[in-house]
Design a protein that fits this description.
The structure holds two protein chains of two kinds.
Chain A lengths: L4 E10 L2 E11 L4 E5 L6 H8 L7 E6 L2 E2 L4 H7 E4 L11 H11 L4 H14 L15 H13 L5 E5 L7 H16 L3 E6 L2 H7 L2 E6 L2 E6 L1 H8 L2 E7 L5 H10 L3 E6 L4 E6 L3 H13 L4 E7 L3 H9 L13
Parallel strand pairs in A: 3-8, 3-9, 6-7, 7-8
Antiparallel strand pairs in A: 1-2, 1-4, 4-5, 9-10, 11-13, 11-14, 12-13
Chain B lengths: L13 H17 L2 H22 L10 H30 L2 H6 L6 H28 L8 H29 L2 H7 L3 H6 L12 H9 L1 H14 L2 H6 L3 H29 L1
Helix pairs in contact in B: 1-5, 2-3, 2-5, 3-5, 3-6, 3-7, 3-10, 5-6, 6-7, 6-10, 6-12, 10-12
The chains are: A alpha/beta, B mainly alpha.
């Protein structure tokens, strides 16, 4: 069986900067793989390598069994790319944008029109299809960009930070659109900085940092390892902080982090509302005056911390590519 | 509702993809009227300033300055149009538009070829407008009509040739602002030439540069085709002398910059 994507020991340098530093990643057919990592981790570089937009310096990279360096043309027939920027022509209508891509796939006028109609309908843009793309909202542009990548009916869809910069509603709409595609059997590789996005869309998450994969697994597996939920406890009196940390640990919370400046203790827990009630009682019993207590999903930083044992460092000199 | 479709195995050939990409550039231009209006006003303004402000102080020897200036002005307008091409290419690069095209199974040369073809077509329009303004400002053709048409056609050829230089600049610049900065090289190219003043009025060292750079040959080719009998007397050579040299320069420009631009585009 051939992998949709098979990367082994992938290296890409830009001058002094090593964007990919021996990256390993495999994606099986039928999967949505999310590459998750902070800015400059090498996510975009990896997608660009898969999309044949740049040549890796070392290592193996195959897409649907084809080597990206030796058979880039074959790879391009397999993929559809939607980038961080909505690469649509603002001075053309939505329909014209899609027809242009269809024509570049060698389709006749009639076939290009049929494909555009199908894609517009698929993304709920039929109404807006006749309007110039420069009149579209950010979310609609992003959808149109996604549509352009669907014109060639790709086997593998590459989405580079598809929802970065979108408002929450557009973001959820785009998620729905992506999930529909997945339902129709398209494999997807997406990059994201958002844990919830990876969680919503992906069947497999690969966390990368410094151009290397540091953890991978299903969303459930990773959350198991990272702790499903984080509890934040704010106290009135700074002196109570150590007692809060101790109380939380007794209740099974992992790795309490004390932040003096905000009078807060955060810890990962594997629990729901029942646990929260117990925690309140325990803190009350310990004589701690709690300002606020809340459960929330872990941030990417916390997952990183849990999985790699180190915090994300945002060195500015790291390549943003 | 949509069903999964088999991947499109086909792709457009070089001709078809060049055409599709050229069409997009032309649509963009036509649908952005402010580009057209500002470009036209700018051209007209400079022509009128040279004609009526500087013109009185410039002696070109025996012929009216307007007949000297307008061929030079029309020819150099192809370079000023090129500045826009450099910025446009850089914008496409920045906006990720080229990434989309580079991820498609189309011949990679066709994206830039489409750009060059579209810009040259648009240039023809700009040239026609500039010519009309020239006539309105008092320019007259002293040669034959076929010579005048040839002169116009040569401007289109020069425009296509310089287009590759500007596409290359846009690709290497990487962003629109840098592209605009790099495209300022248009000013020495056009002003240190025979376009607006006789080369003989420049200091000696500058004359050497002006006489041997492509713009001077191109300007003098167009000029000698419109001056009629006064041409060889003023310029020292018959029209054919300048036309052949200008065409050789055009070929050289394409041969030098098209491969560089295409290679840069390929590498990304």
């Amino acid at each position: 069986m051939s992998y949709t994507i098979e990367a082994a020991g992938l290296v890409k340098r830009f001058g002094e900067t090593t964007a990919l530093d021996g990256l390993d990643l495999t994606a099986e057919p039928g999967q949505v793989v999310a590459v998750l990592g902070p800015n400059g981790a090498g996510k975009t570089t990896f997608v660009r390598a898969v999309a044949t937009l740049l040549r890796p310096d070392e290592g193996l990279l195959r897409v649907a069994g084809r080597d990206v360096r030796r058979e880039p043309a074959a790879v391009r027939r397999t993929i559809g790319l939607a980038g961080q920027y909505a690469a649509v022509e603002p001075a053309m209508t939505g329909r014209e944008n899609l027809e242009m891509v269809a024509r570049l796939f060698g389709q006749s006028h009639r076939s290009a029109r049929a494909i555009s109609s199908r894609v517009l309908e698929q993304l709920g843009l039929t109404e807006a299809g006749g309007r110039l793309a420069r009149t579209y909202s950010g979310g609609m542009r992003r959808k149109l960009d996604l549509g352009a990548s669907l014109v060639g009916a790709p086997r593998l869809l590459l989405l580079d930070e598809p929802t970065t910069g979108l408002d929450p509603r557009s973001r959820i709409e785009l998620w729905d659109a992506i999930r529909d595609l997945v339902g129709q059997g398209t494999d997807v590789l997406l990059t994201t900085q958002y844990l919830d996005e990876a969680d919503h869309l992906a069947s497999q998450i690969v966390i990368i940092d410094h151009g290397r994969s540091v953890a991978s697994g299903t969303p459930a597996e990773l959350k198991q390892r990272a702790g499903r939920t984080v509890v934040d406890v704010h106290v009135r009196d700074r002196g109570d902080l150590p007692r809060v940390a101790a109380a939380l640990e007794r209740l099974g919370a992992g790795m309490p982090q004390v932040e003096e400046s905000t009078r807060r203790v955060s810890a990962s827990v594997d629990a729901g509302m029942g646990w929260l009630r117990d925690a309140l009682q325990a803190l009350d019993a310990a004589g701690v005056e709690v300002d606020d207590i809340a459960l929330r999903p872990p941030t990417l930083d916390e997952v990183f911390l849990a999985l790699t044992g180190q915090a994300i460092d945002d060195e500015p000199q790291r390549a943003s590519a | 509702m949509a069903t999964t479709t088999a991947s499109l195995e086909s792709s457009a050939g070089p001709g078809a993809s060049t055409f599709v990409i050229a069409k997009r550039s032309i649509l963009k231009f036509v649908r952005t009227p402010q580009l057209i209006v500002i470009g036209t006003i700018q051209g007209a303004m400079f022509l009128l300033i040279f004609r009526y402000v500087f013109g009185g102080a410039i002696d070109v020897g025996g012929i009216p300055y307007v007949d000297f200036l307008v061929p030079g002005f029309i020819t150099t307008s192809v370079l000023f149009a090129g500045m826009g091409a450099a910025t446009g290419v850089a914008e496409d690069l920045e906006a990720g538009f080229f990434d989309r095209l580079r991820s498609l199974p189309i011949p990679r040369g066709s994206v830039l070829a489409g750009r060059a073809v579209a810009d040259t077509a648009l240039l023809t329009w700009t040239l026609a407008v500039t010519t009309a303004i020239g006539f309105a400002a008092g320019f007259r053709i002293h040669g034959t009509a076929p010579e005048a048409l040839l002169a116009f056609g040569l401007c289109v050829v020069f425009g296509f040739a310089f287009e590759w230089l500007f596409i290359g600049l846009g690709l290497f610049a990487g962003n629109a602002q840098a592209a605009q900065g790099m495209a300022l090289l248009v000013f020495p190219l056009t002003f240190v030439s025979s376009a607006y003043v006789p080369v003989s009025t420049l200091p000696g060292w500058l004359q050497v540069i002006a006489e041997h750079q492509p713009v001077t040959y191109m300007v003098d080719a167009v000029r000698s085709l419109t001056l009629g009998p006064a041409g060889p007397a003023l310029l020292g050579h018959p029209a054919s002398y300048f036309v052949t040299r200008a065409l050789l320069w055009s070929v050289a420009l394409v041969a030098a910059f098209a491969p560089v631009a295409i290679a840069k585009y390929r590498r990304g």
